[in-house]
């Protein structure tokens, strides 16, 4: 199971995250309206860190996304707005960073509407639909994912907390394309500042329980 810890910002907190939690991915939010927004001044501190970084963007221009990939040394681009397949296709021609398309889940998902993204994305990420685009701390009804029709892997997101580990593992037994989780606001002391003990606890529950089954 992959673990992405999103919404990181503070250098000391990031150092602890890398040395004590060692997640597969660390997310930096480049959406100016987010309380977890990472400014350009942080680039020098963050570029060379020994962790794969994912930039989170909401309907951002292509030029700005590509600038941030270079400036922050991003390994993946998480498109968390209403970016069309054409935008993703165009980005795919211009960067080697992985492209992840977020699908905001409300009552239903039109699976057919995801087909045009398939050639260009490394994975999908399912999050709860919210006016603020992300970071809602709310789960959606995961039952809907049992009808996921593609082989492409995806991450599960939206309000995951320490208690979610067992449920995630149970879901994975039914949906092998569920390749990991993205965790954020439920592990925070303040926006952009994570509780390292909670993260360690969640990871060990996910890994330990995963090896028992
Ligand atoms: O966290 C934010 O502020 C944010 C703002 C705009 C787009 C995405 C954002 N975060 C992403 O939201 C999901 C779920 O977060 P949560 O667990 O519900 O707090 C996660 O993918 C973050 O990358």
Q: What's the CATH class label?
A: Alpha Beta
Tell me, briefly, the overall form: globular
When the domains are counted, the total is: 1
**What are the bound molecules?**
the ligand O=C(O)c1ccccc1N[C@@H]1O[C@H](COP(=O)(O)O)[C@@H](O)[C@H]1O
H/I helix tally: 6
Structural class: alpha/beta
Oligomer: single chain
Which architecture would the CATH scheme give at its second level? Answer: Alpha-Beta Barrel
Fraction in helix: 25-40%
Query: What is the strand tally?
Result: 10
Return residue spans where pLDDT drops below 50 for at least 5 consecutive residues: none
Q: What are the key terms here?
A:
213 residues, alpha/beta, TIM Barrel, 8-stranded parallel barrel, two-stranded antiparallel sheet, 6 helices, globular, binds the ligand O=C(O)c1ccccc1N[C@@H]1O[C@H](COP(=O)(O)O)[C@@H](O)[C@H]1O
Notes on the protein architecture:
The protein is of the alpha/beta class and 213 residues long. It has one domain (2-212): Aldolase class I (TIM Barrel), CATH 3.20.20.70. It has six helices and ten strands. The strands form two sheets. It has an eight-stranded parallel barrel. Strands 9-10 form a two-stranded antiparallel ribbon. Helix 1 packs parallel to helix 6 (196-212). The longest helix has 17 residues, at 196-212. It is globular, with a radius of gyration of 16 Å. The two termini are 13 Å apart. 36% of the residues are buried. The model has no long low-confidence stretch (mean pLDDT 95). Residues 6-7, 27, 29, 31, 34-36, 56, 58, 80, 127, 133-137, 157-160, 182-186 line the site of the ligand O=C(O)c1ccccc1N[C@@H]1O[C@H](COP(=O)(O)O)[C@@H](O)[C@H]1O.
